[in-house]
TrEMBL record:
PANTHER family: CRP FAMILY TRANSCRIPTIONAL REGULATORY PROTEIN, HTH-TYPE TRANSCRIPTIONAL REGULATOR ARCR. This is Putative transcriptional regulator, Crp/Fnr family. Residues 15-135 form the Cyclic nucleotide-binding domain. Keywords: DNA-binding, Transcription, Transcription regulation. GO terms for molecular function: DNA binding; DNA-binding transcription factor activity.
Amino acid sequence: MENMTKIMDLADLPWFAGLPDEVLAGIESGSRRRHADRGQLIIERGEPGDSVLFVLSGHVLAVQWTRSGREIVYSEIAPGSAFGELSVLSGMPRSLSLYARTACVLLETPGTLLTGLMDTQPQVRQAVIQDLVRRIHDLTERVQELTALDVEERLRAYLLRVSLEHGGLEPGRRMPDPPTHAEMANIIGANREAVSRALAKLSRAGIIESGRKYLRIMQPDALIPDDTGRGDCPSR
């Protein structure tokens, strides 16, 4: 098992923040903790969807494969986030496979427990609805990126999102445990060679610094699209 970052408490999960201690204790006793090593399959597409999982530490990838065997990454699920609730609410099988991108600690909660909470705890119901709406917005934005932006622009948008998710747009902020070039390519819908070329261009422009185990955003403002829809890259 890889070294873990801090494991979130149940009360730190956005869906459960502010719930009474006795309700949290009931969730904890009715759920189970799971550990996954890097690269381990957590959920397979087509399985029954009878539970929701929360990421307490680590990162998870939601993926699907084309008929030709190409992997498509739909999203990266960060600590504090949930997955599997769509199948619980719809009664449909899992629509995506989930893999641990890093070593993970997960909390698996039965679907009946979640739906019971949604019935009795209005804040849980509201949090689930808000999460589903946000996911729709994210998917809409991704479709727009895939249809309207080239590889470099999609990479810039991805790096900008990652910067915001990891604390903001402070110059020089280091991305912890960055994805490989192949993983980035799967996330933004490109091939590894094109991502490597785009990263090299951003590096030459001084916008990023990268190495085998790190990636640092030196000029986060340069990742923000200008009025023409393209970022300001000195090497253009």
